Amino acid sequence: GQLQLQDQIVFVGVCSAHRADAFAACAFIMDALKTSAPFWKKELSKTGEHWVGQKASDVARGEAWSK
After folding, report:
1. Mean pLDDT along residues 5-9
2. Using CB atoms within 10 A of its CB, is residue 4 exposed (0-12), middle (13-18) or buried (19+)?
3. Is 14's pLDDT higher than 70?
4. How far apart are CA 38 and CA 54, in angstroms?
5. Which residues pair with 45 in a beta bridge?
6. Residue 34: which of 5, 10, 13, 16 has the closest Cα?
7. Which of 37, 32, 2, 1 is CA-nearest to residue 14?
8. How far, in Å, CA of 5 to CA of 43, rounded?
9. Contact 10, 30 (CB under 8 A)
């Protein structure tokens, strides 16, 4: 469905014995979603609709996890 500006569209829940590991897990999931989930990047406007491309910074963060 359509979302309004400021609507929350992602919930990530993780569990870990250590807070830092939980935060890292959330960061990994969000970085993965930003580069491999185009379904959440479609924008509608008065002039039409278009898919938002990946930002170079998002790609770099996603690639950093595999190093």
Report:
1. 86
2. exposed
3. yes
4. 9
5. 48
6. 10
7. 32
8. 11
9. yes
